[in-house]
């Protein structure tokens, strides 16, 4: 690995051994520490013309005494004393379609190489968070839940409950991902309850019948316990994916804020308590444009939910902070942003994903999660009757040729995930909307993971300031750099 130059004064420094997770936000300590850069600076660069894709750069990122540093460029100041949320990381979803493509269409060698590139911290990009659909979503080869019944039939004791469907492709991949990255967290979200629990008597349409709150809660419990028996701990669940949207052609379930409160209060929370489950319950799991929904849930049952999950497809990211500011003891999770044909690749789409990643972390999220881990050459498979999708996977698996393609989504995730370690904290850094932006993280080993985005169509120096030192790195026009380096405490 090429190392970049370091110019530094000889000072006696001591490394801290750990950095415990703390609540967000955190006031600066009464006696703030003085930090210095204590290593060379590694730079990984992508440019919006796609000529660089998370390339490890050999150009010099030079650490200067601040007074001697060049003054021309844009200024980013980082402050390790000002810490925010604990970070769980970045990732995507093993939908039925994605899992099938990776596990059953790719050759075993291709699959293993891809999984290493997705989840291994050294040889890959170290993804550390997965959002797992509970049953079929729009990206499944057929409609299914874990307890389907013939029309007019019910199974109120859930005697037919089974996760056998997931044992073919989904669970083998989750287990492999955990072997590659033991710090991986898995959350789960249903697109639909079993049809017999719903007003539509179908996985498509309808809402949950109130008389089945307890049975549906036990459905969650059985899912979590069945996954535990397979060695997969479910970190968190949401009661419903996109509860304010009822799709006409794929599984879904309408759930108002009032209905979500009732289901959690009368079903989900007591069922978890009785079963001794510590799985977190996250409210909402939908777009930024309806912050009234999570606020209504949090105001009604703040003690029963652990946080709020958000999607990208409507509204503005500031909603995350607005809800967090009212309920600062409840964590923020960003759980879905799909790449797709509605934003043309490469430049516009890559810009969106980098900007979204920076923004969701700057607005208190612990996670940045895209959608399908893989789709095929036709943006599928999708459930029968859905039609052609416009979504894009992290990778594309061509079902005819078996060719594997790493999409821009893979490289955008790399900028956030590669150097993120367990119990990283977001630390303060500068942004200038429309000019440049950044987000910075401090790992427990005192390594910094800094993402800097030069938004302008002009090559400029990035001037990264830490106390009396400045990192200078020449950034091309419209480029994003992930910089990683160690810092030390000055005694």
Summarize the amount of helix as a percent range: 10-25%
The CATH architecture name of the largest domain reads Alpha-Beta Barrel
Number of helices: 9
Largest sheet: 9 strands, antiparallel
Question: Summarize this, please?
Answer:
The chain is α/β, with parallel strands linked by helices and 491 residues long. It has helices at residues 96-105, 108-119, 170-180, 213-229, 257-275, 292-300, 318-326, 347-362, 408-417; strands at residues 13-14, 35-37, 42-47, 55-56, 62-65, 74-77, 79-87, 89-93, 129-134, 185-190, 234-237, 280-287, 307-311, 331-336, 339-340, 365-372, 374-375, 391-392, 395-397, 404-406, 424-428, 436-442, 447-454, 460-466, 469-475, 479-490.
How is the topology of this model organized?
Layout: E1 13-14, E2 35-37, E3 42-47, E4 55-56, E5 62-65, E6 74-77, E7 79-87, E8 89-93, H1 96-105, H2 108-119, E9 129-134, H3 170-180, E10 185-190, H4 213-229, E11 234-237, H5 257-275, E12 280-287, H6 292-300, E13 307-311, H7 318-326, E14 331-336, E15 339-340, H8 347-362, E16 365-372, E17 374-375, E18 391-392, E19 395-397, E20 404-406, H9 408-417, E21 424-428, E22 436-442, E23 447-454, E24 460-466, E25 469-475, E26 479-490
Parallel strand pairs: 6-24, 8-9, 8-16, 9-10, 10-11, 11-12, 12-13, 13-14, 14-16, 17-19
Antiparallel strand pairs: 1-26, 2-26, 3-4, 3-26, 5-25, 7-21, 15-18, 19-20, 21-22, 22-23, 23-26, 24-25
């Amino acid at each position: 690995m090429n190392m970049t130059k370091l110019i530094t004064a000889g000072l006696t420094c001591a490394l801290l051994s750990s950095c415990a997770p703390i609540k967000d936000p955190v006031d600066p300590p009464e006696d703030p520490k003085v930090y210095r850069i204590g290593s060379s600076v590694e730079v990984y660069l992508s440019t919006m013309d796609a000529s660089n894709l998370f390339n490890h750069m050999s150009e010099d990122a030079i650490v200067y005494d601040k007074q001697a540093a060049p003054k021309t460029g844009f200024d980013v100041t980082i402050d390790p004393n000002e810490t925010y949320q604990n970070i769980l990381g970045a990732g995507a979803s093993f939908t039925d379609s994605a899992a099938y493509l990776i596990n059953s269409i790719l050759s075993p060698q291709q699959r293993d190489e891809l999984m290493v590139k997705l989840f291994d911290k050294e040889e890959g990009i170290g993804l550390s968070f997965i959002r797992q659909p509970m049953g079929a979503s729009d990206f499944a080869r057929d409609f299914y839940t874990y307890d389907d019944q013939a029309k007019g039939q019910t199974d109120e004791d859930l005697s037919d409950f089974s996760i056998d469907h997931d044992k073919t492709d989904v669970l083998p991949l989750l287990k492999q991902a955990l072997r590659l990255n033991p710090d991986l967290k898995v959350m789960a979200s249903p697109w639909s309850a079993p049809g017999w629990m719903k007003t539509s008597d179908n996985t498509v349409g309808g809402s949950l019948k109130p008389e089945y709150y307890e049975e549906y809660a036990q459905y969650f419990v059985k899912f979590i316990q069945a996954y535990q028996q397979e060695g997969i701990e479910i970190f968190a669940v949401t009661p419903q994916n996109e509860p304010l949207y009822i799709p006409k052609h794929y599984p879904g379930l309408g759930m108002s804020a009032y209905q979500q409160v009732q289901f959690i209060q009368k079903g989900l929370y007591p069922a978890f308590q009785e079963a001794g489950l510590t799985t977190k319950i996250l409210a909402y799991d939908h777009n930024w444009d309806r912050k009234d929904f999570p606020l209504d849930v949090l105001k009604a049952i703040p003690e029963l939910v652990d946080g709020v999950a958000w999607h990208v497809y409507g509204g503005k990211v500031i909603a995350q902070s607005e809800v967090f500011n009212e309920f600062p003891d409840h964590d923020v999770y960003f759980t879905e942003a799909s790449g797709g044909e509605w934003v043309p690749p490469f430049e516009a789409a890559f810009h969106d994903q980098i900007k979204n990643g920076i923004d969701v972390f700057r607005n208190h999220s612990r996670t940045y999660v895209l959608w399908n881990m893989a789709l095929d050459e036709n943006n599928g498979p999708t459930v029968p009757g859905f039609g052609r999708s416009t979504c894009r996977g992290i990778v594309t698996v061509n079902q005819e040729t078996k060719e594997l393609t790493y999409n821009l989504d893979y490289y955008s995730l790399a900028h956030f995930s590669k150097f993120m370690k367990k119990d990283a904290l977001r630390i303060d850094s500068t942004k200038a909307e429309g000019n440049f932006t950044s987000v910075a993280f401090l790992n427990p080993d005192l390594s910094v993971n800094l993402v800097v985005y030069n938004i302008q169509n002009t090559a400029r120096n990035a001037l990264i300031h830490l106390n009396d030192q400045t990192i200078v790195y020449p950034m091309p026009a419209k480029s994003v750099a992930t910089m990683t380096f160690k810092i030390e405490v000055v005694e």
